[in-house]
Amino acid sequence: MARGTILVTGGAGYIGSHVVLALGERGERVVVLDDLSTGRADAVLHGELVVGDVGDGALVRRLLRTHGIDTVMHFAARTVVPESVADPLKYYRENTCATRSLLEACAAQGVRHFVFSSTAAVYGVPEGGIADEDTPTAPINPYGSSKLMSEWMLRDLAATGALRHVTLRYFNVAGCDPAGRIGQSTPEATLLIKVACEVALGRRPELAVFGTDYPTPDGTGVRDYIHVTDLADAHLRALDHLRAGGASLTLNCGYGRGYSVREVIAAVERAHGAPLPVREAPRRPGDPPMLIARAERIREVLDWRPRHDDLDTIVASALAWERRLAQGAR
Ligand SMILES: NC(=O)c1ccc[n+]([C@@H]2O[C@H](COP(=O)([O-])OP(=O)(O)OC[C@H]3O[C@@H](n4cnc5c(N)ncnc54)[C@H](O)[C@@H]3O)[C@@H](O)[C@H]2O)c1
Ligand SMILES: O=c1ccn([C@@H]2O[C@H](COP(=O)(O)OP(=O)(O)O[C@H]3O[C@H](CO)[C@H](O)[C@H](O)[C@H]3O)[C@@H](O)[C@H]2O)c(=O)[nH]1
């Protein structure tokens, strides 16, 4: 069957740009729609970039029609948990309402396949800190709620037979393209590994450890960090699954192992070769103590085989990219 063109929303952002690169390496036809609010045009190394809002229904319908798009990969979103606590309606507008508008356009134009960037934040505080795909969803911050509502709309639309979807619930994504072509360039980043690398290179004065009294082995937050290149591969496999006629799926994307904030700091110190200036700080609003994936299903169903499942590898690639940024790269 002929491969249709893929619309990648948010393809100029951190994760989206890595997936666009992987699609390009496979010779897929790609159109990126991104408003460049946190993404960068020069991170789009493949396909055509259209600058615009994913919530602009008329624009999206025109793109779907004129490019003959049969698959949408939807990354565009606001992604900062504490910001969502402070400004929840922004998250419901930019994540939930924009996704509703996108889905409406997809249904109207006959898009058949949809790959959605969801999040482990839909689980809230799962028992034991570990979640499989059947763990009840109970988000504890508006970011997670905004994404869960999007999941529900997608599920319900798929139930009408309009399209099939793979919803990928990412745990904590980190690291950069091992070849150093693109990386994480998010301005005013809040994610731990990115921030720690900025501190290592003197671009920030210190690293705040948000919470040292969690019920975890060393008192700091525990997360399941997954390399962005392995995550990009999961997207290609999701695409192949849908093209082969596979059923709609919801899958965790993680390695099934957790690291504390202190363990991440130690890994950055190993890669950097020097201690980081660290300050203990209060808990950050909206943060669960521990979030680890049970991630067997994606291996079984998509035959996903991660190749970068190692914290030191993840951190080394993130630090290498940060050095390039410090030298003026994108
Ligand atoms: N980074 C993580 O650890 C993580 C974890 C779980 C889920 N996710 C999800 O993955 C997706 C990508 O996240 P990321 O880390 O690459 O973030 P990012 O901010 O780097 O990328 C988001 C991209 O979407 C664009 N965008 C935002 N709003 C838009 C709009 N209304 N119209 C068009 N473009 C818009 C931004 O300019 C940016 O390029 C998001 O949906 C996020 O919720 C990320
Ligand atoms: O400067 C920092 C930054 C983070 N942390 C801590 O490090 C851990 C990881 O925090 P991140 O900000 O790196 O990531 P989150 O777990 O908050 O959230 C990320 O992963 C989630 C899923 O697990 C969501 O999908 C979300 O999009 C994405 O931001 C948390 O315990 C946090 O408190 C610090 O101590 N200091």
UniProtKB/TrEMBL annotation:
Cofactor requirement: NAD(+)
InterPro entries cross-referenced by the UniProt entry: Epimerase_deHydtase, NAD(P)-bd_dom_sf, UDP_G4E
Domain of life according to the entry: Bacteria
Keywords per UniProt: Carbohydrate metabolism, Isomerase, NAD
EC category: isomerase
Pfam families tied to this protein: Epimerase
Enzyme Commission number, as recorded: 5.1.3.2
Reactions mediated catalytically: UDP-alpha-D-glucose = UDP-alpha-D-galactose
Protein name per Swiss-Prot or TrEMBL: UDP-glucose 4-epimerase
Source species: Inmirania thermothiophila
Taxonomic lineage: Bacteria, Pseudomonadati, Pseudomonadota, Gammaproteobacteria, Chromatiales
